[in-house]
Specification:
- Helix 1 packs antiparallel against helix 4 (46-58) and helix 1 packs across helix 5 (78-88).
- The chain has six helices and three strands.
- The chain is mainly α.
- 18% of the residues are buried.
- The longest helix is centred in the C-terminal third of the chain and has 26 residues, at 91-116.
Amino acid sequence: MVEYLSDRLDATFAALADPTRRSMLATLATGDQTVSALAAPYDMSLAAASKHVKKLEAAGLVIRDIQGRTHVCRLDAAALREAHEWTQRYQKFWAGRLDALEAAILADKQKSGKEEQ
């Protein structure tokens, strides 16, 4: 089970590493799109767009339905939920670091204010 989740997370983060694929996901968040529609904003061939969609499919982020010659894609956010849950583990760590940074900045400002007087 752990290895399966690790493989899915690896695939999810690999798919999300590319800005074009992240943009395609953002477009799909607004509704189903054809591969042609996903390719339209970019200077790329339909074959290149299809490769991006295949990477998103492999990560479980997109489901592609074939209707004749038209390929319609829709977002499947379950893998994003798993990635979000993984990153949430580190929220407490970063919140603590940011709190410490804020305290250091305030202490520095107070020290600078006292030195000027």
